[in-house]
Amino acid sequence: MNRRELLKLSAVSIPAATAGCSMLSSGDGDGEDGADGTETPDVTTTDGPAAFGNVAVAVPEDPVVGAEFSPSVTVANVGGESGPFTGTLAVSGANQETNVDVETDAVDPGETITVDVGPLTLDAAGEYEFALPNHDAAATARVGPATAPVGEPVSFGDDLRVTVEDITLTESVFGQTTYSGTFSSEPRLTAFGAATGDVLAIVRVSAENTGTSTTSASPGTFQLADGEWYADTQGLPDSLVGEDGSWFADGGLPEIAPSDRVTGYLFGTVPRDAARSTVTVQAQLTGSGTLPERAWELEPADGSERSLPNVSVESVDTPDQPLVGRRYDVEVTLRNEGDADGTFRDVVQWGDEWTQATSADGDADLDADVPIGGSIETTVPAGKTTTTLTSYSVYTQQFSYRLAGAGTEWTVEFTPAELEFGEAVLAEGNTDIEVRGLRLQDELTVYDDFQDEESQVSPGDGNQYAAVEVHLTRRDEDADASEFDYSGFDLVADGAHVGESTYVGDEVLEDWYEATGDITASSSVSGWYLMEAPAEYTMSDLVVEFEQKTGLYDRYEPLIATWE
């Protein structure tokens, strides 16, 4: 048998769509060393002009979009004279049809030849048939996508070069969302975790317009094999923390001007079992109804199976009744039942509206323009790990908390802080309150500005002056502090409130005395807050109490702290 190149055919491009490979050949006789690789039969000839039989069509294995390949045609001249074979190779598939003329040189009687048709280039992936209809010969093949490893560019037509730069598989991510209140809105940190049995996939993409006119990729162009994108952002973060560029949530690319380049990411979910093998991002260029024509593959590092973590929250432990205004620890126990180290990410929220707990200090190291209080980001090796947050409350009441991503909830009831002089309590308005002491005095020396003289002033009948030494510190020096209301202080004796407000209009000249300051204008202030108390009480009888006014109508919150 002779094999010849087809003389009359140049490269042919056939538009169509997607991927794969498999090959089935058929002809009108058993072959031997023919187009389908089998042995061709002996050829029996007859008198008369050239006639052709034993016709077969074959297609190379694993043809791919955009790459040249050459089907082959095998024919035998069963006639009595030499002559050329002519026919039409009908190529159909991926919603496309086209015909390619086939013509050979003269074939001698009894001779079997194989000719290569092409090279052909197909622009669409899918199942194709290559047939010679008048000779009852055909072969089928699955044309696969043009595949590249992650990090290599792939052309989308003549003017768009796209690269899947990286694929990250993880169980959780931090996101940024916007909280809209009655009068304002503010950015907040949130956490999002994969559903049970899945992992999250962050696919980072860059695209460059190499043409002379604006171009784009339509929604749904990118596909996540074995998984799906989060396309509906309802209930999801506005963006992922730490990711550059735009979130291509519709699976397409925005308009890109000539010579411009865009970067962004796609966000999806993949079943855990599928994520253990090669993860593939595909691109569908020719519309619906066909297979993707482009693909990027992320293979497991060791070439066999990818190791994955499986982290869950085992428990959350807190003190039974932590003190209001005092820091306490929240211990989160994590368990990793996977076969790789994992990273646990989550955000503590609190209250009826699940507000971010910015008062909690976590261990997330984030470069984000958003408050990160109450966040956890920690590596979890196989087995059990405990991570600790430090938190506090400025209200003496019960609150509910949760880990936003994991959904784990717990409740804490705060009790009043009973302190010694010199200890501080964390209060509203970015202010820490330290009561350093209490002083009792029957009368005060003051300066009478009107009379331009010193004088002595006395409290009300049966009372004595009680001065509370207060030191205020702005908790976060980079944040504003609210104006402090000193009238929240009171004195308690034998369980009863005995403190009374007082007014000293003149300047107090006592050498120990310093007027209280304005914490809104300084990082810290110290001074004495003057009250009156019944003269019958001594220092050992009295307890300094602080309640805070907050909310509408300056209502008093339950007791926050006492000092003695």
Give the DSSP E fraction (strand runs of 2 or more residues): over 45%
State the domain count.
4
Shape: rod-shaped
SSE-based structural type: mainly beta
How would a crystallographer describe the biggest sheet? 6 strands, mixed
The average pLDDT value, as a whole number, equals 87
**Extended strand count:** 48
CATH fold annotation of the largest domain: Immunoglobulin-like
Question: Which residues sit in consecutive blocks of at least 5 with pLDDT less than 50?
Answer: 3-32
Q: Quickly count the helices.
A: 1
CATH class of the largest domain: Mainly Beta
Tell me the radius of gyration.
Answer: 40 Å
The second-level CATH architecture of the largest domain is Sandwich
Q: Assembly state here?
A: single chain
Commentary on this structure:
The chain is mainly β and 564 residues long. It has four domains: 2-144, Immunoglobulin-like; 148-298, Immunoglobulin-like (Sandwich), CATH 2.60.40; 311-412, Sandwich (Immunoglobulin-like); 418-563, Immunoglobulin-like, CATH 2.60.40. The chain is 1% helix and 49% strand. The protein contains one helix and 48 strands. Strands 13, 14, 17, 20, 22 and 24 form a six-stranded mixed beta sheet that branches. A five-stranded antiparallel beta sheet has the order 3-11-10-6-7, with no helix packed on it. Strands 29, 30, 31, 33 and 34 form a five-stranded antiparallel beta sheet that branches. Strand 46 and strand 47 form a beta hairpin.
